[in-house]
Design goal:
Largest sheet: 6 strands, parallel
Distance between the termini: 18 Å
CATH class of the largest domain: Alpha Beta
Length: 270
């Protein structure tokens, strides 16, 4: 019984590789919905429909636990899935809450009332749909008080990265950071709220300056998953090889993924 990892395209591979480092014996099935990427410019109903369809495909792979390694899907679809759609014997987890727990200095699963935290100025970089959902602000308000969040929709960045146009991606990062800094000149922390963005960490850090702590999701989500599986060992399958599926063209996606991660990747048709 593998754990499923879903993303609209290649970004979730940054989460996948951190989970492999943390839980090397955990069998994983990855599904990228490259045929419909990017999700960040779609409306809420479309994101919900596509995310449910992808989750069902991972259920067919035997994945009773699915990680939405896509911030747009986590922000827009996850709550609705859990409240109205998810069967009782299945689990779907997102990537937003572990990140917010890290920013607000909480341990995994700490549901105590909101409190003052050290970080007061937080910059959020995410897709337009994630920013519009205000899910980050909502979840953070459950855990912390007195935190000012400035969100920057990073239009075009995922498209550039999926096309492996790193020159354009760097230009876009600088433009989006400049736009945010005009509204929040001195952020203490920056959250890269899209699983594609860790591949641009150096560009974000350089544009923000050395004093800004940049939070990445991969290692945080991996540690959170390890904690979850310790509490729910029935969701942890036996050792096995990872499988990579795509709704797009497997040859093109494999080439793009190889460039994206800098190591050979082979995708199969979902």
């Amino acid at each position: 019984m593998p754990v499923g990892i879903f993303d609209s395209g290649l970004g979730g591979l940054t989460v996948h590789q951190e989970i492999v480092k943390t839980l090397p014996d955990l069998p994983l099935s990855y599904l990228g919905d490259s045929a419909h990427a990017p999700y960040g410019v779609r409306d809420a109903d479309d994101i919900f429909r596509l995310t449910c369809k992808a989750t069902e495909r991972l259920w067919d792979e035997g994945c009773d636990l699915v990680i939405l390694a896509c911030n747009t899907a986590s922000a827009v679809a996850l709550k609705r899935m859990q409240e109205t759609w998810l069967p009782k014997d299945k689990r779907v987890l997102g990537v937003f809450v572990p990140m917010i727990e890290a920013v607000t200095e909480r341990g995994w699963g700490d549901n105590s009332p909101p409190r003052e935290v050290g970080v007061k100025q937080v910059a959020l970089f995410a897709t337009p749909a994630t920013v519009a959902s205000r899910a980050f602000q909502r979840e953070l308000a459950f855990r912390a008080i007195g935190v000012d969040i400035e969100a920057q929709p990073c239009a075009g960045l995922v498209d550039a990265m999926e096309a492996n146009d790193m020159d354009l991606a760097n230009v876009l990062v600088n433009g989006h950071v400049d736009a945010l800094l005009r509204r929040m000149p001195n952020p203490q922390a920056a959250v890269l709220g899209c699983t594609h963005y860790p591949m641009m960490r150096a560009a974000f850090q350089e544009a923000l300056g050395p004093k800004v702590k940049v939070y990445l999701q991969g290692n945080i989500v991996a540690d959170s998953l390890a904690y979850y599986l310790d509490r729910h060992p029935d969701m942890k399958g036996a050792a096995g090889a990872s499988r990579f599926l795509t709704t797009g063209d497997p040859i093109n996606v494999s080439l793009a993924a190889t460039k994206f991660l800098g190591r050979p990747m082979t995708f199969e048709k979902a």
